[in-house]
């Protein structure tokens, strides 16, 4: 199949800019990504801050893979604030990748790569193990079935390093939301996962660990990461606090029945 024919299989997003914000849309009803034009590296959407709160558990991953580029908010954040991390971003829609400059996504270099690829295929045959795997793959129809199947979550578990962590953004209002949680539980184990919701309860961010992070985490006063400036820490601290509280609650309820749709 030619590149042009293949591109025709994917919906072309558009960019909307107003009041200091630039947003990526597939439709007027859904924002896929949002960027502050004055602070292009800031995480504007609440769920992205929740996903990046994984730094509370793994402050300095050596390797990180991301399924879904969108407007590049988390990719830019990782590039800026994780200078020692090897980062690979997988995006299946070529029209999304074509907008990387519009959203000030950095060019590829020796530690940061964006590749046109199917995320499900990537985790099935990973080139190397990941310390962190961020799953935020949505299209114009929502969550693609290939990125929330039992096979997919099994493969996510296998692609992680022994102490690795998967962080997945799910649509909390999806009719199969409970089934998606149950699949993650089957892949990782009931004591190895938790989720938090955003204030609008539209997104649920799932943290699923192959290692002992959820059990071994010690509650302590939150500290500003070394690479964060004060403004970034002010943005991120509520998400860190929310995750810390969720981990503490998980530890307290360890062994209780979990997701059984």
């Amino acid at each position: 199949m030619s590149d042009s024919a293949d591109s025709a299989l994917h919906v072309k997003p558009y960019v909307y800019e107003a009041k200091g914000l630039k947003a990526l849309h597939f439709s007027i009803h859904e924002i896929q990504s949002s960027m502050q034009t004055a602070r292009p590296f800031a995480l504007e959407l609440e769920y992205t801050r929740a996903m990046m709160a994984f730094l509370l558990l793994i402050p300095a991953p050596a390797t990180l893979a991301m399924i879904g580029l969108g407007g590049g908010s988390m990719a830019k954040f990782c590039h800026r604030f994780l200078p020692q991390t090897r980062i690979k971003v997988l995006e299946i829609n070529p029209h999304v990748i074509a907008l990387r400059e519009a959203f000030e996504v950095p060019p590829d270099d020796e530690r940061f790569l964006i590749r046109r690829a199917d995320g499900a295929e990537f985790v099935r045959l990973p080139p190397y193990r990941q310390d962190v795997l961020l799953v935020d793959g949505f299209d114009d129809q929502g969550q693609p079935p290939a990125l929330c199947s039992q096979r997919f979550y099994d493969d996510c578990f296998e692609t992680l390093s022994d102490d690795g962590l998967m962080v997945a953004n799910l649509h909390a209002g999806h009719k199969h939301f409970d089934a998606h949680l149950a699949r993650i539980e089957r892949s990782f184990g009931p004591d190895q996962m938790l989720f938090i919701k955003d204030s609008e309860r539209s997104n649920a961010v799932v943290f699923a660990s192959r290692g002992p992070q959820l059990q071994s985490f010690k509650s302590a006063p939150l500290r500003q990461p070394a690479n964060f400036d004060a403004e970034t820490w002010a943005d991120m601290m509520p998400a860190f606090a929310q995750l810390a509280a969720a981990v503490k609650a998980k530890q307290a309820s360890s062994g209780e029945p979990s997701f059984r749709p």
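Strands lie at 14-18, 21-27, 30-36, 63-67, 86-91, 112-116, 130-135, 160-171, 193-197, 203-209. The radius of gyration is 18 Å.
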